[in-house]
Hints:
The chain has 332 residues and is mostly helical. The chain is 65% helix and 0% strand. The chain has 14 helices and no strands. It has helices at residues 9-20, 45-56, 73-99, 107-113, 123-129, 133-147, 152-155, 163-176, 186-196, 212-226, 231-243, 246-258, 263-294, 299-331. Bound molecules: fe (ii) ion (FE2) (2 copies). One fe (ii) ion (FE2) binds at residues 176, 242, 275-276, 279.
Amino acid sequence: xxxxxxxxxxxxxxxxxxxxxxxxxxxxxxxxxxxxxxxxxxxxxxxxxxxxxxxxxxxxxxxxxxxxxxxxxxxxxxxxxxxxxxxxxxxxxxxxxxxxxxxxxxxxxxxxxxxxxxxxxxxxxxxxxxxxxxxxxxxxxxxxxxxxxxxxxxxxxxxxxxxxxxxxxxxxxxxxxxxxxxxxxxxxxxxxxxxxxxxxxxxxxxxxxxxxxxxxxxxxxxxxxxxxxxxxxxxxxxxxxxxxxxxxxxxxxxxxxxxxxxxxxxxxxxxxxxxxxxxxxxxxxxxxxxxxxxxxxxxxxxxxxxxxxxxxxxxxxxxxxxxxxxxxxxxx
Length: 332
Ligand SMILES: [Fe+2]
Ligand SMILES: [Fe+2]
């Protein structure tokens, strides 16, 4: 993969820094702070692209960036500036929702009940009943950034857990990574879905096209996964991610069948109907429940991670469904 196209001053600064390091052990441009304005960074495509680019150094990297910039102090400082701001904004955004959560209930139970507090439009309902083929393609493109590296951010957390929680996460990840069969790797199933509808399955192929919220959804998982301090948030996020997957996956698969798309298109979603019904309990009870029983101070972050997952899903659901309804109004 090559570096993406810039989308504003922040991503330009990141790209310049990474490019200036090409062929040198350290980047030529040193700086400590980015000029972050007062507006939300969550919905700022420039800020989210800058952060996504920095995070990708920890996954597959870029052909036009030397690998050793992954741990360059200048590059890490820049990442930290963006992360601090994003984390603060996310914690503020989910605080009202978490104030309404009863304090006494077991954390696993609370996590599984949390998605019911979500309101607003459902992309899965639209994809099930009304979507055009173009809407399906749009959805798959937007999600491709995170699904083509599905479970990679959570795998970073495995080394930070111990005992029962570690065993439960390993069990969940074993399914996500194909259960011993390369052809069942969920990242690969997603790539096959993209091929089946005529999209490019190459990792990062649509980074220049997707919106801020798709970049942010991927970034949040990376931020939680890369910081041991945020392991509770990473696993709380995973619990809600799994708990909000099974029913929507069934709807999306049947929407694809309604549109007459090839069977290979829906295979990824069929796989998640049953798998995630199991994973949600593994993540909520056997991972988060055990983590909080052993380290009660993690409870708050587990719930923050869970609420962040819902918050981002709600924002992107509004954006996608509004876009699809605008397109259908123009077409009719
Ligand atoms: Fe999966
Ligand atoms: Fe899963």
